[in-house]
Design brief:
It contains three helices and twelve strands, in the order H-E-E-E-E-E-E-H-E-E-E-E-E-H-E. By secondary structure, it is an alpha+beta fold. It has a single domain, classed as Protein Transport Mog1p, Chain A. Strands 4, 5, 6, 7, 8, 9, 10 and 11 form an eight-stranded antiparallel sheet that branches. A four-stranded antiparallel sheet has the order 1-2-3-12, with no helix packed on it. Strand 1 and strand 2 form a beta hairpin. The longest helix has 13 residues. It is globular.
Amino acid sequence: MVGKNGGGQQRWPSLALVAMMALGITGCGTLGLSRSQPDSASMTNQRVDRSFRGDTLVSRLKPVQLSLPNGWQAVPTGSLHGNADLEAYNPDETMFLVVLGEDRSAVAQGNLQDQANIYLQILKGGLSPIVANQSLTGVDRVGSFPAVQYEVRGDVSQRPVAYLHTTVEMGDSFYQVVVWTPDDLRVANNEAMRAIVQEFRDAEQ
């Protein structure tokens, strides 16, 4: 198992890179992720608000935020996705997260399930082969907002990856909250992956 013993230090940057390919990112180059907290100049898409309750990742682009559980930290803008509204990772447990928002007017007409299906097809288009068909979880809300959530597993550049893909309908926008981990850590990280999705919320409430 890759965990706090440091056994995963050599593979987690490359896993982030190959998993990005399934999210539609190409030409990323090296990630250059560090275990130290990024400085504010390198986080143009987000900021970290610190309080006695813990750290909160706040988007500068959309009215959304994410509470960061212990072990999670922000990454510099564009490290995990060039268009992310929020991006974070947990280096000890080898988990990565991006939030991508789109205005309803910019997507095809349809309901939440329709949009979730479109996003899933994009994600699955980067997987070869599909290890298992996507599996719908029982989650239908994130906070107070309607959501559709799937587990998806597949290989990216011959590396097995497990995704938890959640589409959230929030006001006039749809958000993808995507968390991923090596497939062999899927069971161990399942609870933590589901928990961080539930930390996503409207920054204006």
